[in-house]
Amino acid sequence: KIYVMSVVCKSNKKVTFRCIEKDLVGDVPEARYGHSIDVVYSRGKSIGVLFGGRSYIPSSQRTTEKWNSVADCLPHVFLVDFEFGCSTSYILPELQDGLSFHVSIARNDTIYILGGHSLANNIRPANLYKIKIDLPLGSPAVNCTVLP
């Protein structure tokens, strides 16, 4: 599920929020924390971009010693359509590790990701990742450039 928060109205210094719960279909990302989600705008359309994070290991792999263990999420980039609840995952060769607790910022059709930590390799990459999203009619195009 995804929860979409929005401002309904502002009156007399009072702000009212609305929360809409949506079921996701398609490539549904696993539950996670320490991730980022940004909104990009391309060709008059917008889409959410989810990346990184950690999740608890699946219950089928848990043992008494590792009951609350966590693992990096796979380094997939998910495009999420907030209106229809559709999610599609992309594998980009430039993103080799799942990163948690990174910083991201979106500007128009591009997301920049910096920092973070990978549990699997115990690394904190010194790269700036530039992910460009193009939303033509049909399938989106997702490209990544690594800026050392």
What is the fold named in CATH at topology level? Neuraminidase
Please identify, by name, the CATH architecture. 6 Propeller
Shape: globular
Total helical segments = 0
Strand order of the largest sheet: 3-9-8-5-4
Helix content: under 10%
Mean pLDDT: 91
Report the uncertain regions: none
Main sheet summary? 5 strands, mixed
- Integer tally of domains: 1
| Number of extended strands | 13
Question: Which descriptors apply to this entry?
Answer:
4-stranded antiparallel β-sheet; Neuraminidase; chromatin regulator; mainly beta; 52% strand; globular; 148 residues; Kelch-typ_b-propeller
Describe this structure in words.
This is Recombination activating protein 2. With 148 residues, this protein is mainly beta. The protein has one domain: 6 Propeller (Neuraminidase), CATH 2.120.10. The protein is built from no helices and 13 strands. The chain has strands spanning 2-11, 14-22, 25-26, 36-42, 45-51, 54-56, 70-72, 76-81, 86-91, 103-107, 110-114, 128-134, 141-147. A five-stranded mixed sheet has the order 3-9-8-5-4, with no helix packed on it. Strands 10-11-12-13 form a four-stranded antiparallel sheet, with no helix packed on it. A two-stranded antiparallel sheet has the order 1-2.
